[in-house]
Amino acid sequence: MIFSKKYTPRWIVFSIDVLISVASISIAYLLRFNFQIPDTNVASLFFIIPFVTLIRIISFLIGKTYAGIVRYTGMKDSQRIFITLFFGSLFIVLSNFVSYFYITKAFIVPLSIVIIDFLTTVFFMTSLRWLAKSIFYELQTSSMQLKKAVIYGTGSAAIVAKQTLEQDIESRYKVVAFFDDVSKRSQKQLGGANIYPISTIESIISDENIEYMILAKPFHTVEEKTNLIELCLTNNVSVLSVPSVDSWINGELSSKQIRQIKIEELLERAPIKLDIGGIEKQIKGKVVMITGAAGSIGSEMVRQLIRFEPKNLILFDQAETPMYDIEMELHEYKQKINFQPIIGDIADQSRVEEVFKKYAPEIVYHAAAYKHVPMMEGNPPEAIKTNVFGTRTIADLSVKYGVKKFVMVSTDKAVNPTNVMGASKRLAEIYIQSLNSTTDTSFITTRFGNVLGSNGSVIPRFRKQIEEGGPITVTHPQITRYFMTIPEACQLVLEAGAMGSGGEIFIFDMGKSVKIVDLAKKMIKLSGLQLGKDIQINFTGLRPGEKLYEELLADKENTIPTHHAQIMIAKVRKYPYIEVKEQIQELIDVLADQNNMSIVNQMKKIIPEFISQNSIYEQLDKPLVN
To answer: For this structure, is 133 an active site residue?
Structure first.
């Protein structure tokens, strides 16, 4: 049957449509003649009804009006019916004119009846489908537990979201209310659900036992969005978001597109205001090289640089598969992009020099680095080889081949370093700062904290652990970190690079530090799970070289403001280039023995503030302290 679990066979739908056509042409005659058809017209019905029915049958076969699943009838199905019947009726009209001018000097079917027949057929065919769909929905939902939801917004996206969710049997949502900030709409209804002021959200979700909040309108500020999501999470309400209209599939919203809010959206801040003119002046028409171009920061730098129309983008990275991915992405861009994907190691001097010699980059964004603290704590030679020697190689070749500006991506872990990775990045900072005073190339450092969603960050790891059912592993209940999104970090790198004249270390406003355990708890709630019931959090202890709190400035440093509120310049100690060059060379010479203790000890001689924590290298600090 039409309301059974199995889909109604197409031949049944087709047969019903044919019967509707026969009934419609009959009804059209009755309506036209006020239910008293003249005898002269009754005789013609024996020809007209089969004629119209045959045309409808052919139309249905061509238009495939019977192919749609009745219980999932949508606007596309109604449009198909309308168009199919319209062209069928148009054929009848054309047949009338052919008959009138070339055969009998009379119409086969009066035009008034053609119009009435068209309207009645459209009405019955669409109404029957929507009625069947409604009955099926009621039968299915009457026996199942529906999830109560409310929608933030009352615009077209909100209305479509309600219809989409309630028409999808599998989603099992029941929208019971809308919220809007337009007071005149309060106490009214939309689609059978009440509209409430936004100020009543907390009381409504509590009184009605709401399980889901669907966001279907833009927010005035980031704070407004964050506050609402926090309110929902506090009341154990899962938050979903309706995508923008331009991302709907063929102009229609799918229930699968209504997705859960991501933790990144809870940590986002107001959009960054960029000096577009200044950045464009620096980039447009230039050859730009990005090291680490396949990484999370490097690849986003590539995406953002495209808009400023560089002459050529040199993408340099040793990771083959990620490089292939970014290459395929760039090929799919609508605008023409000149770029060169190059596989190579920044510590391979001959390879890097060949790239500089061949492409002559004018601006270099240096994002290539080893960055995982525990991994580098166990592999100091590689940290020095890539982060220090690799940076020195890129920097020296930039000078040799006349690069105008060199912008390095550093880390907050370089401040008062407690681990090998942070110390190696601090050494790289010191080298390019000292080199800046000896050359026309402008060397600029940008320093920021953790980046949301980057390779190896806690967000993807927590997300994977949640998907696997847990537990979520956090190193320490008090550990905190600064976070910013990948696009935000890259925008500030571009801005700092444009404003820098050379020798500066730019630090970014990272906002407030975030407790990692609080981050984990929010991700659990955003996933619709309950801590302690559905998933656990385990504390594993600090990893080698890890510290509880990150810093953006060393103890003896302070900052100078810039014209950009989110970018400051760190006032740091100046190092003479000759001295730094000798010390870095001595460190690189130590690499030959591959002795971790000797390497780290040499690093500590150059950076006295490098005090190891939770590490086997702590023993090296005792003589230094005494």
So the answer is: no
Q: How much is the pLDDT for 555?
A: 45
pLDDT attached to residue 429? 94
Q: At 263, which helix (H) or strand (E)?
A: helix 263-267
Residue where the block lists tokens 């070749």: 397
Q: Which two tokens stand for residue 521?
A: 């708890």
- For the domain covering 147-261, report its CATH number: 3.40.50.720
pLDDT over 80 (residue 341):
yes
How far apart are alpha carbons 232 and 65 in whole angstroms?
44
The tokens for 587 are: 């460190």
Confidence of residue 292 (pLDDT cuts 50, 70, 90): very high
Pairing mode of beta strands 558-561, 567-571: antiparallel
Contacts of 561 (CB under 8 A, 6+ apart): 568, 569
Catalytic residue among 286, 371, 405, 413: 413
For the chain, what is the mean pLDDT?
81
Q: Which long-range contacts (CB under 8 A, 24 or more apart) does 378-381 make?
A: 378/544, 380/420, 380/596, 380/599, 380/600, 380/603, 381/591, 381/594, 381/596, 381/599
pLDDT of 626 over the 50 cut: no
Helix (H) or strand (E) holding 164: helix 156-167
Spans of all domains in the chain: 10-140, 147-261, 276-618
| Architecture of domain 276-618 in this structure | 3-Layer(aba) Sandwich (3.40)
Q: What is the mean pLDDT of residues 348-371?
A: 94
Whether the pLDDT of residue 1 is over 50: the answer is no
> CA–CA separation, 328 vs 324, rounded Å?
6
Establish whether the linkage from the previous residue to 460 is cis, with ω within 30° of 0: no
* Rounded CA separation 579/572 (Å): 17
Give the Cα separation of 284 and 287 in Å (integer).
9
3-state secondary structure string across 64-84: CCCCCCHHHCCHHHHHHHHHH
**pLDDT for the residue numbered 579:** 93
Element (H, E) at 136: helix 111-141
Task: Compute the distance between CA of residue 406 and CA of residue 391 in angstroms, rounded to an integer.
Answer: 11
Tokens of 193: 């659900």
SS3 477: coil
425 CB-near residues (< 8 Å, 6+ apart): 369, 387, 410, 411, 413, 414, 417
Predicted pLDDT of residue 269: 66
Cα gap 91→97, rounded to integer Å: 10
Residues 6+ positions from 456 with CB-CB distance below 8 Å: 371, 372
C-beta separation of 192 from 219 below 8 A: no
